[in-house]
Amino acid sequence: MTSTISAYTDKIKEMSMLSLICSCFYTQPHPNSLYQYGDLEVKGLNKRASGQSFEVILKDPDQSGDKSQHQLLPSPPRREVSLEELQTRLEAADERRKSQEALLLKQLAEKREHEQEVLYRAREENIIFSKTTEEKLTQKMEVNQENREAHLNALKQRLREKAIHAAEVRRNKQLQADLSG
Q: What's the pTM?
């Protein structure tokens, strides 16, 4: 008895709430087939918490009871195509192919022209950058040369002043030595 109750509780846990409610209203067993239409039948195989799998069965047309659904529709009558019509179709297809080729060649030429313009602009910018960089560099070098010359001149001037001052100091010492002696 307890094993039957535990089996029922396990079964209830596996069933969804909708299935549980439906089983209360419809006490007849549920048929194995979920959906059936013409020669198509869908059966549910496994139903678990992780998902549900189905089996789709297609019946052989000879075995199905509905013969009216499986009759083929007659194909529309083919009209005869003349040689002239074939020739005009071929010419039209050739014209379309030629126009597509011309369009493709035009697009490729435009793309190539654009690439050349981009390269030309890049070269121009590179030349301008090189010139401005060269001008700045020469200007800096000139300024550095002027600063160096001004610094050297200032050093020479200080050396002259020191030499003059040293000569005066020597002369004053000589004069003092001559006066004292």
A: 0.38
Q: What is the pLDDT of residues 77-113, one digit of tens each?
A: 777 888 899 999 999 999 999 999 999 999 999 999 9
Distance, in Å, from the CA atom of 137 to the CA atom of 143, rounded to the nearest integer, reads 10
- Look at residues 3, 10, 22 and name the one whose alpha carbon lies nearest to residue 48: 10
Nearest to 56 by CA among 41, 74, 45: 41
Alpha-carbon gap, residue 58 to 37, rounded angstroms? 10
Integer Cα distance of 47 and 26 in angstroms: 19
Q: Are 44 and 34 in contact (CB under 8 A)?
A: yes
Q: Please name which of 43, 75, 88, 41 lies closest in space to residue 60, comparing C-alpha atoms.
A: 41
